[in-house]
Design a protein that fits this description.
Strand 4, helix 7 and strand 5 form a beta-alpha-beta unit. The protein has 269 residues and is of the alpha/beta class. 40% of the residues lie in helices and 13% in strands. The chain is elongated, with a radius of gyration of 23 Å. It has a 5-stranded mixed sheet with strand order 3-2-1-4-5, with helices on both faces.
Length: 269
């Protein structure tokens, strides 16, 4: 009667009963989970562990089991903290803003049609360097990036120049209202490339949350503090961008990497 109420089969109940009192019945599964968990220094949650088990070891494991084993053996995932600081730069009168055309419509279905961009700072050798990135909102692929030890306009202009030029016609690119993106040089470059410019509302970082999310993961996963030179830092970032695009599956991309998901969309379109 209890099996009927609980919605389980009698055979399943008796199979569970054989190991119910064995505290080490799931120890082998724990070792598999711990191997993946330790590989990224405790930063993987159950979703990434489940994807890695399937991708790296061809093992399918229920998410409830992964959560239970993590709790049982004290595998507590490190949660990245939100950055409380945001650089604010005053704009001159010649700078101008654009409408928020994207309007938080982050669910896109065509690759390389809508991109978002921003700049983040990286502490390095008791000073800062600055990373500019353009991300495809549809596939989450990093389309281009640039890093410099200063905040001059070439930081963002060169980032745009590094985009896949043959696919820029008509592409919408979204940013905040930062100094660089209201600059006439930047606006003129986008117009010449026939790109459509969109901007977040003032003081609304959520309007550009896809790129903010990427920067959070980037700072959590890249060991930039150990770099001794700017060249070494650039190499580390180069390796991470390749890993992020080609070898980092994401739950919301049907468990594919950004490049795999982009190719998937191009096949079915």
């Amino acid at each position: 009667m209890l099996c009927l109420v609980a919605g389980v089969s009698k055979s399943g109940y008796y199979e569970w009963l054989k190991t119910a009192d064995d505290p080490d019945s799931d120890y082998e599964d724990y070792l598999l989970i711990k191997e993946i968990f330790d590989k990224k220094k405790g930063k993987y949650g159950w979703r990434t562990i489940q994807m890695r088990l399937k991708r790296d070891k061809n093992i399918i494991m229920n998410h409830k089991k992964i959560i239970r084993i993590k709790d049982k053996y004290g595998l507590i995932t490190k949660v990245r903290r939100k950055n409380p600081y945001k650089m604010i730069m005053e704009k001159s009168q010649e700078h101008r803003t654009c409408d928020n055309i994207l309007d938080r419509n982050f669910k896109q279905d065509k690759p390389r049609q809508v991109g978002c961009t921003d700049i983040t700072y990286i502490p390095f050798n008791h000073r800062f360097v600055y990373l500019s990135v353009v991300k495809d909102i549809t596939t989450k692929e990093i389309l281009s990036w640039n890093i410099l030890p200063h905040l001059q306009m070439e930081l963002v202009l060169d980032t745009i120049k590094l985009l896949p030029q043959q696919q820029l016609n008509g592409m919408l690119i979204h940013s905040d209202q930062g100094f660089h993106y209201t600059n006439p040089q930047y606006i003129s470059m986008l117009q010449k490339l026939n790109m459509v410019q969109s901007m977040s509302r003032k003081g609304n970082c959520i309007d550009n949350s896809p790129i903010e999310s990427f920067f959070g993961h980037f700072k959590d996963e890249v060991d930039y503090k150990s770099c001794k030179s700017f060249a070494e830092l650039k190499n580390v970032i180069t390796d991470y961008m390749a890993y992020y695009n080609n070898d980092r599956p994401q739950w919301n991309l049907k468990k594919m990497t950004p490049v795999e998901y982009r190719n998937h969309l191009l096949v079915i379109s």
